[in-house]
Amino acid sequence: MRKRSFVAVAFAALLAVGLFGLAGCTGSGTYQPELKSAEVAPPVIGEEGTLRVGVNTENPPLAGMGSGKIIGIDVDIAAALADELGLKLSVVDVGSDPAGALANGTVDVVLGIDDSASDGDFWRSASYLPTGIALFALSPDAGIPTQDSGATFAAQVSSKSAWAVSNGFGESSLTPTDSLKEAFEALEAGSVQYVAADAVIGLYAAHGQGLDVSIVAMLMSPTGYCMGVSNENVDLQTAAGDVLARLVSDGTINVIERKWLGTTVALGDLTVVSDLTASAADAATGSDSEDVGDFDSGDADTGDSGDTGSEDTGSGDSSDGSDESGDTGSGDDSGSEDSGDAGDSGSSGDEDAAE
């Protein structure tokens, strides 16, 4: 009898502990990781405890508007950057004037700067994401076209990619399409052998269409996207530059690429089949960005990502909420509505990725 009483008491105790634990798990509070100690403070940054990051929302999938907020590769990278610096995050749309935003103190850093562009008097980091005009095929064994191979290409009309094809292979080789989506549909149907497109936006478009493609060659030497900081702000150049380099080396940015693009962007070992340069393409076609269509975090594969705890403070034209710009680590994904889910896009903005 005494043994039975002891078992009953022990069971009651375990039940009480279980109920207490369950109550704790189902509380109304939401877990938010504790921020790291801030590595920088004013006057190195303009606002105490917050990193203000400028992006261009006319340049998806690096950054754009989706579901009423700023989302994209650069937003995810900004969240990781802020978290590593121990800061909250404010994402600000600086449009096509990053230099002006840095000069007037609207933002602390800007992302999505083409490292081949000479305009803008500010410090540039090393590239964190490569790009360039690429040739896509349905198979990695499709081969590299030559000028006399009779190869056929699809590219969005009036884009730098279309100009590169015409310049390198002749106008008769080109099938111009109204959108990059249509170009990949032509590739899938077998009416062309290759699609010419910006490497990043092409991967984003194909991934959004559920199409498995390979980059087999480049039509220009790869360039890349980098971070900009005011020339005078040497302390932030060092602090933010070191963190960005670490995000590249430790694979964090690869995770973000896979979220948006379905793969990482590796262009360094590809054959360049033309002597076209980025500046020559810009001079020949102009640099007007083209709309990538409906841009939403739901287009991206959310992958495995975790909340960095960065927050958006609503400064300027910023995205709302830290959880909408801040998941970058490993862990459970918080949902496709969260623009900061790290894992898979950025573009040079020269193709229309979708209708």
What report would you give on this structure?
There is one protein chain. The strands form four sheets. Strands 1, 4, 5, 6, 7 and 13 form a six-stranded mixed sheet that branches. A five-stranded mixed sheet has the order 10-9-11-8-12, with helices on both faces. A hairpin with a 2-residue loop joins strand 2 and strand 3 (69-71). The protein has two domains: 50-130 and 223-266 and 290-329, D-Maltodextrin-Binding Protein, domain 2, CATH 3.40.190; 133-218, Periplasmic binding protein-like II (D-Maltodextrin-Binding Protein, domain 2). Helix 2 (73-84) runs antiparallel to helix 8 (252-261). Residues 1-28, 286-291 and 302-350 have low confidence and may be disordered. It is built from nine helices and 15 strands. By secondary structure, it is an alpha/beta fold. It is found in: Cell envelope. It comes from Adlercreutzia hattorii. This is Solute-binding protein family 3/N-terminal domain-containing protein.
Produce a short descriptive summary.
The chain has 9 helices and 15 strands. It is elongated.
